[in-house]
Write a structure and sequence with these properties.
157 residues, alpha+beta, Chemotaxis protein chec, eight-stranded antiparallel beta sheet, two-stranded antiparallel ribbon, 3 helices, 10 strands, 33% helix
Amino acid sequence: MQAEHINAFIEATKETFQSMCGVTFYRNGNIRKVSGEIVDADELMAICGLTGEVKGAVMLSTPLDAGMKLVGAFLMDKLTEINCDLMDGWGEIVNILAGSAAAKIKEYKIDLALPSVLVGRSAKFYAKAGNPFVLVPMKIDNIGTFSLGISMEFPKK
C-alpha cells in the first residue's frame, strides 16, 4: 500500500467528517502499521470490507462518547444511549468515506461490502500477517479521538 492510497482514505475521511458532521480533525500521533497481531480497538468500531480488484477493509474506531457526538452531528440529533441510530449512523459514515476513497483510487476497481458495526468494551481485531492494517490516530477538539484503519491487498501485476 502506497502513501497515495492512505492519503485517499484520509482525504475522504476529512471530506466526510466536514460535510456530514460539521467537524474537522487532525492527526493525533504516529501512523502505525500492524500485521499478524491482535490490536485493541475503541468501544465503537465500524468495518467496511473492500472487494473487487482490491481486497481489504476500512475501519473507524472511537470511544463511545465521541462516537455518540459524531453520529449525533451526522443525524442532527443528540444521542444519549446505544441504539440503532448510533450503530446505523456509524456504519453509514464509514460506508460514505470508503466509497469516496475508492473513487479517488482510480487505477483499481474497488467495491464495498456492507459495513459491520460493533460496540463494547475491550474490543479487539486481528490484523492478519501479510496484509497489514495502517492505523491513523486522529483527534477532534471538543469531541475526542478516533482511529482510521486501512488494509488493502492489491492484485499481482
